[in-house]
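Example record for the data management plan.
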Amino acid sequence: MKPWLKHYDKGVPADVQFPEVPLWKLLADSAQKYPDNVALEFMGKVIGYRQLWESALKFAGALRAQGVQPGDRVAIMLPNCPQFVIAFYGTLAAGGICVNVNPLYTPRELRHQLSDAGAETLIILDLLWPRYAEIEEEVPVKRVFTTGIQDYLPFPKPPLPPQSPAGKTLGKPSPGSKVLGLQQSPAQRSPGCRALPCQARRGSPAAVHRGNYRSFQGSHAHPPQPGGQHLPKPGLGWRRGKGVKE
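Corresponding structural encoding:
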């Protein structure tokens, strides 16, 4: 007995048949069928499905170029912005496992989550860099990508320097970082799940693992391989990490 079904709008099915395809395949199909339709709108900036999918592939290539292998955990510490979507689908296309990180986490919570997940790659908003800097030597992260909200605004905005808890300006978080010409890498098999951290009532954050079918993230799926393309405009910069060669 499902009494809530009577409240469904006309034409809404009671059950939905999910396709057994990897999650990135849904975005790839949308890019092919509706290339110019609006996928994201952010502060007046409009991104179509084709542009979104191409950006995700470019970032997937950047991850592979910097040593990310299928099954590696990639932590994403970003607010609601285009870069989160690009990083999420780019990680899946590269075969990585996404570890979503709450942008509100304190350094202590961030240290626990990165260590618990075994994340060797971190994608973080530049304004949040000071929190990571406090625990940089205590986590397994080897490489860090930084990005700024201003990178995808439709109008020019100067970067906002990060602030310390006392409100003191710390300056740019990654002065030595460089913006990569993001290239698509050879397709690899995708792992079987992604980590979904959740906040516990007491103690440290915990994580649950989402299986293939629930996330449409197939374990034997191969993303397409378009020719190498460069990211137009600054997007995700790379900061050298421990044990990573230029």
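Summary line stored alongside the record: Residues 163-202, 211-222, 224-235, 238-246 have pLDDT under 50 and may be disordered.
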